[in-house]
Design goal:
Elements (H helix, E strand, L loop, with lengths): L1 H10 L4 E8 L2 H8 L1 H18 L5 E6 L2 E7 L3 H17 L1 E4 L2 E4 L2 E8 L5 H17 L5 E3 L11 H15 L2 E10 L5 E11 L5 E2 L1 H10 L3 H16 L7 E4 L2 H5 L3 H12 L6 E6 H6 L1 H12 L4 E7 L6 H6 L4 E4 L11 H16 L3 E4 L5 H10 L3 E2 L15
Parallel strand pairs: 6-7, 9-11, 11-12, 12-13, 13-14, 14-15, 15-16
Antiparallel strand pairs: 1-3, 1-6, 2-3, 4-5, 8-9, 8-16, 9-10
Length: 398
Amino acid sequence: ESLERIVARARRGTPGSLLLLDLDHFKVVNDTLGHGAGDVVLVELARLLGTLRRPGDELARLGGDEFVIVLEGIPAEAGRMVAERVRRAVHEHRFDVGGRRFDLGVSVGVVPIDGRLKPAALLALADSALYAAKEKGRNRVVLSDGSVAPTQLSEASLWASRVKDALREKKFVLVYQPILRLESGRTAHYEALLRLADGDGTLVAPGDFLPAAEQFGLLAQVDAWVVDEVLSILRTRDNVEIFVNLSGASLGEEGHLAAMEERIRESGIGPGRLAFELTETTAVRDLIGAREWMRRLRDLGCRFALDDFGIGFSSFSYLQGLPADYVKIDGSFIRDLETNPSNRALVKAIDTVAHTLGKETIAEQVESREAVAVLRELGVESGQGFALGTPKRELPAA
């Protein structure tokens, strides 16, 4: 409400500035001393910021370690100077947590409030400036010029800002691609695939925005959003299993596994309804974390698939050591299956070993009826790809 009021005043000729702040390397505190220590730091930061603001300035925590300060009657360049004073004060402050002292920096994005943009657009622009500050080395201030695409900002920081905006404004959507039994043609499962809804209604593929989400530490939040959406669908639909992708960032995020367990318990869904996909490479890079996620979530009735199998570390021993239920054979082996004897032999080997270990096989990127015939011949149970079904915004009626 305060931001809307200041925007309205800016339209009448009284400018303002919006400062978006984010602690640098805050994850180090959480990972070193736990989330309780992180909360102590955030309380201390809020107290410090409160001492720096003028009467009439608005200070609020947006979530996590992000804070916003709204300056009324302060034009952009003066707002940048205020942000610089705040940055310096935080950098010089010693955060004492449990007898340990932390020197933390803060990145700040500054945008002018001139009445042209609504509050949501201002926050999105401030996000972009904030990520530009982090990309330039952190512990610095970046002033946006107030345009839609500030010249200071890289493509990655703009995408990161759009991801934050999508999380905040519910601009992510899921599409569902069927996974079919190759012998019967019956739909066995669905995979939930993430898309970002653009302003013109088009859906942006994850290859455009997930690299920036990974670079700026947003993947675990994206994963949580996807799981929440899928759980809401599963509460209303019986007898369907949905696969969701789980990033390596989620495996390494402290407290994320416990939060995921709580989400699943509260949903009340039965066993065999939700399956998580981990790429082979992600699982092998963090074997301990992958096994722990699999063990604890399988106890709640979830299942697991090793995704893109065959292109990572390519050792069948990992199949034995990971309690996965499904093996998804990478599409690079499937696309020319009918004409490439080497790929046919590799698919057969993966299928044989997976079945020996009690795991089902799913072929990815099945794009021709000829490939379907070869996969049936090789004994692969299920397939996914445009030859079998395209992604749809809605699940078919039960």
